[in-house]
Each structure stands twice: as C-alpha cells, then as structure tokens.
Specification:
Structural class of chain B: mainly alpha
Largest sheet of chain B: 2 strands, parallel
Number of strands of chain B: 2
Distance between the termini of chain B: 63 Å
Strand order of the largest sheet of chain B: 1-2
Structural class of chain A: mainly alpha
Strand order of the largest sheet of chain A: 1-2
Radius of gyration of chain B: 22 Å
Oligomer: heterodimer
Number of strands of chain A: 2
Strand content of chain A: under 5%
Largest interface: A-B, 38 and 44 residues
Shape of chain A: globular
C-alpha cells in the first residue's frame, strides 16, 4: 500500500467515530430537508425548516450521557446515529417542524449535569427545557427520584423549572406566542389524547365528556405509578451505579409519557429517545426500542394521511406500546449477574 | 439540602408504606368521584330496586323486597334496605358503598399478597402495599364500581378475605366468609373448584366445612324472617315483581345459573368465553338448531376441564407453596368462567383481581396480566357510555385462550425440578 494511502487509512481509523458522526449528521440533515414541505399538511404542525437541526441536540446529549457513565466509545457514536436517525425524531422535526427534540435534549443535558453533582446548572438547564416545551415535565419523575435517592440538593431548586414554565405561559398570554402553544394539543383542546397511542386511546366516545369525567383519574394513575416506582426502587438500602440509575429512571419518563392525559403525537419523542439510550445499555432492548419508536411514528403519519392509512388501529398501537414498555421495565430491572 | 428537608425525607423513607397507601387511597377516591354521575343501564336497575326498598320503608319492609332478585341474594337486599335509612342521593350513596367495598377488596388483596407472595418480610410488606394500590387503582375495579355502578367488589372482597383466612389455616373463618359471599351473590360459585382442590391437596380440614356455605346462606334469610315476625302486615303486602313470599331455598345457590342456561339466549353474553365462536342465538330466532345441546355439552366440558386441571395439580406432587395455591386459585376461577357457557362479561371480575395478586407472587405473569387488561377495557367500554373497541367477541376469545395457555404453561413450569415426576 502506498505510504500516503497508509497514512490516510490510519487517519481514518483514528478518527472513525468523528467521521461517522459527521457523515450521519450530514446525511440525516439532507434526508430531513425534503420532508419539511409536508408541514402544510400536518394538522397542528409547526412548520419550521430550522427544526431539522433540532434533533442534533438530543443525539449529542444522549451520546454524551452514555460516555459519562463509562460506555464504550463506539456505543456513544452509535447512540448519536440512532437518536438522530430515529423515525420518531425525523417525523417530529422534519415533518411536523416541531422543536420537541430541543426540549428533550435540554432535559437529558440537565440530567447529565445532575449526575455530575452540578445541581444548580442542572436545574437552570431544566428550567430552560421547561420553558421550551411542556413535555420537559415528563422528566420531573426522574429528577424527583434522584432527589429522594441522593438527598444532596434542595427541593427549592424545583422552583426553577416552575419559574421557567410560568414565564413561558405569561409570555404567551402577553402575545409572545412561539410556534405551537405551550400545552399539548389534548390538554389545550379538552381531549384525553390526540393522534397518540397513549393509554387513554382505549377510551372512545364523546371527547368532551370523556375529558371531563376521566381527567382526574388520568392524572391520578400516572402519579400513582410514579409514586409506586419511587416507593419500590428508591429505598434506603438500595444502591445504584450510574448505569443502573439510568435503567431505573428512564422508564419512569416513558411511563409518564404513556399515561399523560391530553398528550399528542409529539410526545412520542419522550418515549423513543430514552428507549434508544436504554437499548445501548441493554442490547436486549433493541426490538423494544424499535417497537416504541414505530408506535410513535404511525400515529403521526396517520394524522397526515388519515386513520385508514394506519396498518393497525390507535388502540392496537396503544396496546403494543404497553406490552413493549412492560417488557422494557422487566429487562431494565433485571439485576446484572454478579461477576 | 435544608435540615427540615432531610428530616422530611427521613420520615418519608421510614414511613414509605403508610405514605404510599394514603396517597393511593386519596388518589383512587378522587378518580372515582368524577365518574359517579354516570348512570348505566344496570345502575338504573339498582336505582329501581332502591326505590322499591324505599317504598317498602327500608328495613321494616325487608320481607316485601324478597329473598333474591336475579343473582343478588338476601344480604344484598338487606344492604339496599339499610341504605334507604342513610340520608343522601341514592346514586351517590350506592356508589360510595361500592367504593368502600373496593377499599375492603384492595386491603384484602394486599393482605393476600403480603402473606402469600413468597418474598421475605420487608419485601412482602412492599408487595402488599403495591398490590393494594394496583387493585384500588385498577381500571376494572374503578370502572365496575364508579362508572358502571356494579357491586362485584362486595362479594369478591369477601372471597379474597376468605382466601386470606383459608391460606392461613383458619378454615372456619374462611368458610363463613365464603358463605357470606354466597349470601350476597351467586357468582361466588366460581371460586368453589379451588376450595375443592385445596381440600384434596392439603387434607387439613373436614369436608363438613363445606356445609358452612349453605348454612350461612340459610342464616342470611334470618333478618328477613325477623322483619316478617315483627311486621306481619307488611309481609302480607309482598309485591309480585319479586319472589318475595317464597321460603328460603338452598337450591337458590345454583338455580340462577340453571335458569340462565335454560332460558338464556346466548352462549356467551358479552363475555369472550370459549364458546363465543359458536353462533349466539336461539333456534327460534333463526340461530343454529343444536343450540340447547351445545349448552349441555359446554357445561359438561367445563366440568371435565376443571377435573382434569385439579387432577394435574394434585399429581404434581410435593409440598405446595402458598404462591402455588394463589396461582391455582386464579387458574381454576379463570377456567370456570372461561369454559362455562352463558357467562356474562362481569363474571371475570374475580380472576381479573386475582391476576393482579399473581403478578407479585410470580413476576412472569406480568405480561399476561397486561393482556387481560385488554379484555377488561372491552367489557366496560360499551357499558359506561364509550364506543366499543374494534375487536369482535370471537377474536377476543382467541386472545383469552392464548392468555389461558400462557398462564397454564407458567403454572406447570413452576419449580419443575423440585416436583416428583408424577405424570
């Protein structure tokens, strides 16, 4: 092999991860761009070309998170690729033009800072996340878990994300409305779910009546689930290493997203991003992550092309999601065999 | 972290069970209250009975109400008559009463799990609390009492507490509670095959204990007879709408079901049972001609399946653990309801609740338990004013059969290496 070629291949091998990431980023952006013309067809779509860059944030944050818990370099690189090329992420940003990916990216970043014991910066970032999108509140159970488990930082820090949300709401009331309202479509419009394979998709009927009757229960159930989870896994004598903590905490975010009343299709990203991160820690979760991702995409596509287009009904998808989440919970909580 | 926060967290962690139970109870009550204004068709019937009890003057008019209305026995009439004397709107009074029985049911299930899940003490306490929460916030329990307005938690709570005492070895208490459950509702019969199996397996009590059941059933008519003695004029004015003047009949223990089979028009009455793939209508209505023959066959077939299962369980040999008995209770009640014909959708309530308990005794059953949730939503959707799910009864029956198979395999694969090769 000629010398320059040898040098080139050596350089490529040395910087393989970086080159792969750049290639994925470039191709990922390129494949998103043509899809932005679908914005007009999307009911409630936010329609911003800039949103195609939004997915870079959760992809980078997810990769960084895995790196911080000591995962191998190639896994971190793969995380970036999976998170950036996930169908749910592409639909959310490219087709819907939404910035939910920014919200999720900021949440993951703030969680990472929390684990690095930088509590105030973590909550400042989380406050920014809450200001950018309502779905940041789905990460609240994760922060609560860490608060009760670590006993290192004050409850007063939770006022910061509260303030962030309040600022956003006040700004909207004052007329400074960002693309898309703050509240999910369902909560704003008095519906238990909107084009979303959430748990509440099983309830079909007069939407206004269902919302009025079942909303309190719809809040009680996820709250009870979170309470039960913390009750079961946040005990005095239970110790977690960094990897185990992610496995204990991220399913909580997904469960909150699945049971959230009033959720719309954009909540899918709060389920798929943690799913892919967990799949890289426990490879048995890869099929589960795929199922969860697709169960988020199909309703989004159904909203554009009509419910008849969907290969399975929303209720069936909700069911599939429930089974996938249950399998994920079982696999995440399975203790590693001691060496 | 502030010092009061540290103290608060310390208190929370030391009293986690109590705090959790309180949280779940308050949340469950809140979630139910907003459903109390739903008046389903069955709730309308209850309100009609309530009105009748009110016209009869409540407790003094108990005899006029009758010993039994459909599957609801003497104690149920007594309960309705007592409610007449409590001030308040009848709809809310009834739903509040059913909610109290939901709490009793959840407490019973929590106790059942805590004592029989096979875990060490601290973990069992946590599982018990979680089972309480899972039951009180379970969609079928909430829909049944708060939305639909049914009273299945009344008799099922008594069955669950009966199981608690049975597995503790307190047989008399267990059978007294079982008899009381029968005195409320005849669907208690679905748990009988398990008691029969337990009797043969443990051989720790006499078969005479089974006589407690008809004994309590007969005693349940006492309040009614007392009222008749104390107010003979009202007794004479018994209304023909109900079987009011009839003396106590022990055949009342089964004749509702006999009546259901003999005159009921469907092989499966909105329940995805084994027979729902057969045509559902009477020959007179243009259905298939062998309808009546199939019903007899179905009953005998169900009996044979139960016998075969009990035989299989007994032949497995070895000392049975409490978790295994819990699993057997679930499986036998599931078998009874699934394979008998003319089952109504609500008859699955008992095994649905037991499935929740089973999750804590055998975590492999978590996914099949989730599968049962689909059938639960199907049952309740149409009854509480929602659109039905896009799935037919025979399709759901196939899913149920699959779930049944999964549960059977899970049961038979329990502790295989410890069992004698008796089969």
């Amino acid at each position: 092999m000629p010398a320059f070629e040898k040098k080139l291949t050596d350089w490529l091998k040395k910087h393989l991860d970086l080159l792969f990431v750049l290639a994925v980023a470039a191709l990922g952006l390129a494949l998103r761009y043509p899809l932005h013309s679908l914005h007009a067809a999307v009911p409630g779509g936010q329609g911003s070309v800039a949103a195609i860059f939004a997915d870079l944030l959760p992809a980078a944050a997810g990769a960084w998170l895995l790196h911080s818990i000591g995962e191998k370099q190639w896994k971190c690189t793969l995380a970036f690729a999976l998170l950036f090329l996930s169908p749910a992420a592409i639909f959310s940003s490219a087709v819907y033009g939404s910035f939910e990916a920014v919200t999720v990216g900021l949440c993951i970043g703030s969680f990472l800072l929390l684990r690095e014991k930088k509590h105030v910066p973590a909550f400042v970032l989380y406050a920014l996340a809450c200001m950018s999108g309502f779905y940041a509140w789905l990460f609240l159970p994760a922060f609560l878990f860490c608060y009760l488990y670590e006993e290192r930082f004050s409850l007063l820090l939770f006022a910061l994300p509260g303030a962030g949300s309040l600022l956003r709401v006040l700004a909207e009331n004052a007329g400074f409305r960002l693309r898309g309202g703050y509240l999910p479509e369902g909560l704003a419009g008095g519906k238990l779910y909107v084009d979303c394979a959430s748990f509440w998709a099983f309830l079909k009927g007069n939407e206004e009546l269902l919302f009025r009757r079942y909303l309190p229960l719809a809040w009680v159930l996820p709250a009870a689930l979170v309470a039960a989870w913390i009750f079961l896994f946040c005990r005095k004598n239970r110790k977690y290493d960094e990897e185990d903590l992610l496995l204990a905490v991220f399913p909580l975010v997904q469960l909150a997203a699945y049971f959230l009343p009033g959720a719309d299709s954009l909540s899918a990203i709060c389920i798929s991003v943690p799913a892919w991160i967990l799949a890289l820690i426990r490879p048995q979760l890869i099929p589960v992550a795929l199922l969860l991702d697709l169960s988020g995409v199909i309703p989004m596509a159904g909203a554009i092309y009509g419910a008849e287009w969907m290969p399975v009904s929303l209720q069936a998808q909700s069911w599939i999601r429930a089974a996938a989440l249950a399998a994920e919970v079982c696999l995440c909580l399975k203790r590693k065999k001691k060496a | 972290m502030l010092s009061f926060e540290r103290k608060a967290i310390k208190y929370l962690k030391e009293n986690a069970v109590t705090v959790f139970l309180l949280f779940v109870t308050l949340g469950g009550i809140l979630g139910r209250i907003f459903l109390w204004d739903i008046v389903s068709s069955d709730m309308a019937v209850y309100l009609k009975w309530y009105k009748r009890a009110e016209e009869c003057g409540g407790l003094p008019g108990l005899y006029a109400l009758g010993q039994r209305i459909k599957g609801y026995n003497a104690l149920f009439q007594l309960l309705i008559s007592i409610l007449v004397h409590i001030p308040g709107e009848p709809l809310y009074k009834m739903k509040l009463t059913w909610m109290l029985f939901d709490l009793l049911l959840a407490a019973g299930l929590g106790r059942l799990v805590r004592e029989n899940c096979g875990a060490e003490e601290q973990k069992a306490k946590i599982f018990g609390a979680l089972a309480y929460g899972a039951c009180f916030l379970s969609m079928n329990v909430i829909f049944n009492s708060a939305a639909w307005g049914q009273s299945d938690s009344v008799y099922v709570s008594l069955i669950i507490w009966s199981l608690v005492w049975l597995l503790r070895g307190r047989h008399l208490k267990a059978f007294l509670l079982l008899g009381t459950a029968f005195a409320f509702k005849l669907q208690t019969v679905f748990i009988l095959p398990f008691y029969f199996y337990y009797y043969l397996s443990e051989q720790s009590f006499s078969c005479l204990y089974f006589l407690t059941v008809p004994g309590v059933f007969a005693l349940s008519a006492l309040p009614r007879q007392l009222v008749r003695l104390l107010s003979p004029i009202r007794a004479e004015a018994a209304v023909e709408t109900f079987s009011s003047a009839a003396p106590v009949k022990l055949s009342g223990l089964i004749d509702v079901y006999i009546g259901q089979i003999a005159s009921g028009g469907q092989m499966c009455i909105e329940y995805p049972g084994f027979w729902s793939f057969l045509p559902n209508s009477l020959p007179e209505a243009g259905g298939f001609e062998d309808f009546y023959k199939f019903r007899l066959t179905a009953v005998l077939f169900a009996g044979l399946v139960l016998l075969a299962l009990i035989f299989l369980f007994l032949r497995r040999g070895g000392k049975k653990s409490r978790e295994e008995y819990l699993f057997a209770a679930f499986l036998l009640s599931f078998t009874t309801v699934y394979f008998l014909p003319c089952m109504i959708d609500r008859y699955g309530y008992l095994y649905e609740v037991l499935a929740l308990a089973l999750v804590f005794a055998d975590k492999r059953t978590m996914l099949p338990a989730l599968g049962l949730l689909l059938t639960i939503i199907y049952h309740y959707a149409g009854r509480v004013g929602m659109e039905s799910l896009p799935i037919t009864l025979p399709q759901l029956s196939l899913i149920m059969l699959l779930l049944y198979g999964v549960y059977l395999v899970l049961f038979l694969s329990r502790g295989k290496e410890e069992k004698d090769a008796g089969i």
